[in-house]
C-alpha cells in the first residue's frame, strides 16, 4: 500500500451546513474468500484461492477471512497451505468462520495450528424466524448455544496458544431479532471471551438478509454500541448484505453510528445480491477527501482478477469501475468537463476539481481517453476536446460552433458513435480538402 502514488486530493465542498461524514477509513476485512466464494456457482479451487489471497494482500487488506475450514477439504487445505508455506505477511491476520458445534470447532482450531495470528469467527443465528422455524429453540437455548460455543472456543485457544487468537462473534440475522435480546446474547458471549485491552474481541453485526432500511440498521448499531459491555475493548464490526440494494448505505450509516470495522467484498460478490462492495465504499470515502487506505490504483487489474476468479463480469455502470462511468456523451456535460480540465491545467491545481467526474480517473488507473466520446448527443465542446487531445488541433471558437453541428449530423445519420479518426477525417474533408 505504501508503495503507490497517493490518490489525488479532492476539493472539499463548503455546504455551510454541519457536515456529518466519515473522517477516517475503518478497519477493513475482506470476506471474498469466504462469503464471496460460498456464493459462486463454481467455488474457487486451491490455486485460485491462493492467487486471490495474494492479490488482497497486495491491495492492502490487513484482515482477510480465508474460508470455513471445517466445511470442506479445499477450505481446510487452503488454510493449512497459507500457514505451512508462510504465505501470510506478519502484518496480515487471517480470519476463519466456524459454527459452534464441538467437532466443527475442533477441526477449525486444527486448521489454524501454528498460525501467528488468526481471528476465529463464531456465529449463530438469533432471529425469531430462525429460532422458531429452523432450530426450534427458545431464546434461552439459542443464547446458551452461543455462550457454550464461546467457552469451548476459548478452551481450544488455550490448547493451541491463546496469544495467537482473536475472537469474533456474529449474531447472524440480528435485525430479525429483538434488539435487547441481541445485546443480551452479545454481552453473555463477551462475558465468556473476556475482552481486555491486549485481547480485544470483535462483535460483528451482520445485516444478513438486509431486513431493514439503512437508517434503521444504523439506529440498531448505535443502540448496540451504547449497550455493549467492555465497549472500550470491543471492536464493533459491520457485515452488510445488499438484498434491498442499500448495503453500502447501511455500512456507511452504521459506521457513523459508532462501528469501527467493515466486512465486505470486491465489487460486492456474495450470497444472493451480494455483500457490501468495499471498492464502492472505499472510493466513496475518497470523494469525501478521506484516504481509504486501500490501493485501488489499478482498477482494470482488479476487474481482471475478479472476473477470472468469480466468472462474473462488472456492469458498465458499476460505480468507479464500469467502463462507462468516466464517460460523457452529452454536449453540456462534455462542455463542463472540458472547461474543468482546462481550469485544472491553467491553475496547475494539485487537487481534483472537475464537474461530472467525482474522482480523477487516473487515481484508479484509467486514462482520460474514455472521458469524452462523441455521438449524436455530443456538442461542440466535446468535438473540439477530441481534436485538441488526439490531433493537437486547437479550433477557434467560431470554428467550434461551425463544426460541432456537422459532427452531430454525421453521427445522427449514421446512428453510431464516431471515433477520433472519423472526426478528424470529417474535419479535413470540411475545411482542408475543399
Ligand atoms: O451474512 C451473514 O450473516 C454471515 C455471517 C456468517 C457473518 O455471513
Ligand atoms: Zn454474509
TrEMBL record:
Provide the GO MF annotations for this entry. 2-isopropylmalate synthase activity
- Binding positions (Mg(2+)): 35, 239, 241, 275
Pathway where it operates: Amino-acid biosynthesis; L-leucine biosynthesis; L-leucine from 3-methyl-2-oxobutanoate: step 1/4
Domain Pyruvate carboxyltransferase residues, every copy: 26-300
Q: Which cofactor does it need?
A: Mg(2+)
Q: Which family does it belong to?
A: Belongs to the alpha-IPM synthase/homocitrate synthase family. LeuA type 2 subfamily.
Self-association and partners: Homodimer.
Q: What is this protein called?
A: 2-isopropylmalate synthase
Which organism is this entry from?
Answer: Terrilactibacillus laevilacticus
Name the lineage.
Bacteria, Bacillati, Bacillota, Bacilli, Bacillales
Q: Gene of origin?
A: leuA
Amino acid at each position: 500500500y505504501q508503495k503507490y502514488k497517493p490518490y489525488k486530493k479532492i476539493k472539499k465542498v463548503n455546504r455551510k451546513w454541519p457536515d456529518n461524514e466519515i473522517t477516517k477509513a475503518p478497519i477493513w476485512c475482506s470476506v471474498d474468500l469466504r462469503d464471496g466464494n460460498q456464493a459462486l456457482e463454481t467455488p474457487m479451487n486451491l490455486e485460485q484461492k491462493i492467487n486471490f489471497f495474494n492479490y488482497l494482500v497486495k491491495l492492502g487488506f490487513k484482515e482477510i477471512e480465508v474460508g470455513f475450514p471445517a466445511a470442506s477439504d479445499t477450505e481446510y487445505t487452503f488454510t493449512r497451505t497459507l500457514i505451512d508455506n508462510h504465505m501470510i505477511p506478519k502484518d496480515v491476520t487471517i480470519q476463519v468462520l466456524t459454527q459452534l458445534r464441538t467437532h466443527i470447532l475442533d477441526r477449525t482450531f486444527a486448521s489454524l495450528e501454528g498460525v501467528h495470528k488468526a481471528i476465529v469467527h463464531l456465529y449463530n443465528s438469533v432471529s425469531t424466524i430462525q429460532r422458531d422455524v429452523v432450530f426450534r429453540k427458545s431464546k434461552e437455548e439459542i443464547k446458551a448455544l452461543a455462550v457454550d460455543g464461546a467457552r469451548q472456543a476459548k478452551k481450544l485457544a488455550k490448547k493451541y496458544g491463546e496469544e495467537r487468537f482473536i475472537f469474533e462473534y456474529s449474531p447472524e440475522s440480528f435485525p430479525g431479532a429483538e434488539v435487547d435480546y441481541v445485546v443480551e446474547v452479545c454481552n453473555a458471549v463477551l462475558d465468556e471471551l473476556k475482552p481486555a485491552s491486549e485481547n480485544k474481541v470483535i462483535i460483528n453485526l451482520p445485516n444478513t438478509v438486509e431486513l431493514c432500511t439503512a437508517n434503521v440498521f444504523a439506529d440498531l448499531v448505535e443502540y448496540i454500541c451504547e449497550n455493549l459491555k467492555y465497549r472500550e475493548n470491543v471492536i464493533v464490526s459491520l457485515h452488510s448484505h445488499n438484498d434491498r440494494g442499500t448495503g453500502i448505505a447501511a455500512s456507511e450509516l452504521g459506521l457513523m453510528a459508532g462501528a469501527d470495522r467493515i466486512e465486505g467484498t470486491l465489487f460486492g460478490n456474495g450470497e444472493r445480491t451480494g455483500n457490501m462492495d468495499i471498492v464502492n465504499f472505499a472510493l466513496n470515502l475518497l470523494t469525501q477527501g478521506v484516504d481509504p487506505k486501500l490501493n485501488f490504483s489499478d482498477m482494470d487489474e482488479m476487474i481482471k482478477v475478479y472476473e477470472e476468479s468469480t466468472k462474473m463480469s462488472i456492469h458498465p455502470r458499476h460505480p468507479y469501475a464500469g467502463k462507462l462511468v468516466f464517460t460523457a456523451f452529452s454536449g453540456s456535460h462534455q462542455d463542463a468537463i472540458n472547461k474543468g480540465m482546462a481550469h485544472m491545467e491553467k491553475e496547475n491545481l494539485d487537487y481534483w476539481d472537475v464537474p461530472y467526474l467525482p474522482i480523477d480517473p487516473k487515481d484508479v488507473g484509467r486514462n482520460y481517453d474514455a472521458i469524452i466520446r462523441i455521438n449524436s448527443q455530443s456538442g461542440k465542446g466535446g468535438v473540439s476536446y477530441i481534436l485538441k487531445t488526439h490531433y493537437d488541433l486547437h479550433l477557434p471558437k467560431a470554428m467550434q460552433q461551425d463544426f460541432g453541428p456537422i459532427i452531430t449530423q454525421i453521427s445522427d445519420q449514421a446512428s453510431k458513435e464516431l471515433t477520433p479518426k472519423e472526426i478528424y477525417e470529417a474535419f479535413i474533408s470540411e475545411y482542408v480538402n475543399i
